Amino acid sequence: MDIVVGIDIGGTNSPFGIVTKEGEILSSGLLSTQDYNSPEDFCSEISQKISEELSKLESEYNLIGIGIGAPNGNYKNGTIEFAPNLPWKGVINLIKLFEAKFNTQIYVTNDANAAAIGEYCFGKAKGMSDFIVVTLGTGVGSGFVTNGQLIYGNDSFAGELGHTIIVDEGRECSCGRKGCLETYTSVTAIVRTANILLAESSKTSLLRDVPSDALTGKIITDAAKSGDTLSLDIFDYTAKKLAFSLANTVAITSPEAIFLFGGLANAGDLLLNPTKKYFEEYLLNLYKGKVTLEISSLTEKNAAVLGASSLVWNEIEKKQNEKVYIS
Amino acid sequence: MDIVVGIDIGGTNSPFGIVTKEGEILSSGLLSTQDYNSPEDFCSEISQKISEELSKLESEYNLIGIGIGAPNGNYKNGTIEFAPNLPWKGVINLIKLFEAKFNTQIYVTNDANAAAIGEYCFGKAKGMSDFIVVTLGTGVGSGFVTNGQLIYGNDSFAGELGHTIIVDEGRECSCGRKGCLETYTSVTAIVRTANILLAESSKTSLLRDVPSDALTGKIITDAAKSGDTLSLDIFDYTAKKLAFSLANTVAITSPEAIFLFGGLANAGDLLLNPTKKYFEEYLLNLYKGKVTLEISSLTEKNAAVLGASSLVWNEIEKKQNEKVYIS
Fold this sequence. Notes:
2 copies of one chain form a homodimer. Helix content of chain A is 38%, strand content 21%. The first copy, chain A, is an alpha/beta fold.
């Protein structure tokens, strides 16, 4: 049986899984990223855990490769480059580290690109050659596929939709600029929106019972689900900003579909319905009614590991069939 | 000798040329587009003229194909679809029309995509796999190349950068929406900017001697070149809007270079220098200093025909070498 290992290196946790070609996770594990002072320590520990899981497999297996999704992961160089949320600074050569542990192919990309390839291999984007995955988590990321290929760009850092400016002189962003999409549509951003609307509005709201520094995306989502109108306003505001950005993006790559993924996308229709409405309003006539907007079909729990593993399956497919692939 | 024919169908004129693989135009001609009530009449007349020019060629030739650039040209269907500036309405099947006249391959794309392929075959983008060409004419168009391929998108209408909204509730656009890039950075747009700044400012200016409905891009450019400060302000304003849009676009496709082309780009450094300054200011740190911003090396006179012809040369190259091509 051919299998691959998918690793998702995150700021808090780094889950891994042993994945079949059909996307079944045979076995999995988890490391707390912050426990490791150096990438070498991290690699040693996770490699040992992976080997243990592999040795437990009941049937014979053939390890095809290891796919790694990581913040600021660089596909072309096989590195993590200056990731602000990881305990390890500078440029980390993941290929070199993991090749010393496993005699197999190692592939690296960033988490949003991994999500896009995962959607292509195991989700709703199967067979699509032009689509976008937008991840709405602590930050906002994106993976663009056109002509059946992932856009890496000249430096492998394409797809930073979260850092397109959508409001001139808007909210301060961690990138040092102002008005980035990320400051309006990430999980942290809707807490900012909540605090602003709570201050500006005089509506009663369930959120007024929560100390402002204790507000979370989940609390706002739950309040909106129970019909709290101010919380619904927060989603409406967020949806409008997201729709504005997505409609502009359609005019560049003209995708068949856009998939929303990650923390905020878990709100489902609460986010999707107003976003769809504003999206159609903002779209150029040429594109109206042509672009599907959906929540990703991958569950957050599995998506990162599946996405990372699909990087390997996709490379295999690419080699087998030079015409239909995402690279 | 292998040759191709390039045709640029425009709202006013439709030039054509017989082009060698090296980009030499051996012979050329021109039709006034508005003289023809039907695409059939137009096709008959231009086909006859092309045949005459071909018969005059001194050396023996081999007609490889015909490339046609046209507004709303659809590469996948080989059609012009609902082009507002042409005398012919609806969907026009150019491949069918021209195949009835010539026993050769016919390729169609829109004018901005033709400019991008032209830049790749005969201009500064030679050998680049990630770049953008932005055309600043009566409207604003764009051709995006990533992974060495032109982005056509799901419906072949990708690359409408001119219709990304850069100012919420901004200037009215011919597309029926507000704030599109085209309303700030086309040749017609800088006349709008001139009239607004003339009204808002109390500066003396050469432009005040010109009746407002007689203002043109050329008059503003000439005034700016002679040091007229209000005219320089107009270019500064235009450059800032363009730079904002280009910096956002870099965050999506991460190109190696962006080339400006068309009417407004003819202003050269007058537009380029302030655009470069604002562009670097707006860019996300990750991209600063990495993306070249230049004026296209193709002259407007030849570019359209070269661009259209390069569509054919590019298809040939694509077939010969599946790895390095723009499709």
